[in-house]
What does this fold into?
Amino acid sequence: MPDNWGYVLAAYGLAAAALLGYWRHLVRRARALVTRRRTT
Amino acid sequence: MAAAIRPLGWLALLAVLAGLGMAFGYAPREVVQGNVQRIMYVHVPAVLTAYLAFALVLVGSIGYLASARAGWDRLAAGAAELGVLFTGITIVSGSIWGKPTWGTWWTWDARLTSTAILFLVYVGYLLLRAMVDEPERRGRFAAVVGIVGAANIPIVHFSVKWWRALHQPSTILGPEPSPIAAPIAAALFTNWVAFTLLFAYLLARRIEIARLEDAAIAGAVRAR
It folds into this structure.
């Protein structure tokens, strides 16, 4: 069977994008909380 | 707890790098499938992490119904969010793996269908949480869905045993000794540890943010 590296890269790339995206979402939420605290 | 989150994040990152090293540098090219089999080091740890997440939703839901303490609800909500994320990764990586090996992106096989149902049940759980504003009602309604939804976990896991499926039977967490070669098993185990640490880090952050948000809302209510 051919190696299909494109499929391997797609699977790892999409998993990394999903995990990084979720992490960034948490970081932004935490920053927004800090900003809100400072302003109130 | 907040002070321990950052070191846990660094530990998770190191474990992920070790997992990538094992998946691409240590584990051999699989004889039948070739290098596309390396998708397994994402696919299997992702589903095991999703099982763990949904088991924690069950624990948090029971804890909340028994005690009405907000901490249990925050655990359940955070674990559900991450469970959906890791189930999504499982489905997408499995679909990408399926195309070159089965010749199709998707088939209504028992394992795939039950996993899709599991995913949709917990998306529903998150939508329900988003629709109910009052925290105690939200916690109670969500806890019921969290407990009922957990019944899907054994259905997903044993679906390949109970029904004729295109998906291969369990090679780990099965009753028989695993037939996986030692280097492949070592790479799989490293990635499973990495995913578990990553999950623990993201869950700890998610719970901490929810705790601070709840405190901010309580503070705003008191100030009125």
Notes: Residues 18 and 24 of chain A are 10 Å apart (CA to CA). Chain A has a mean pLDDT of 91. Chain A has one helix and no strands.
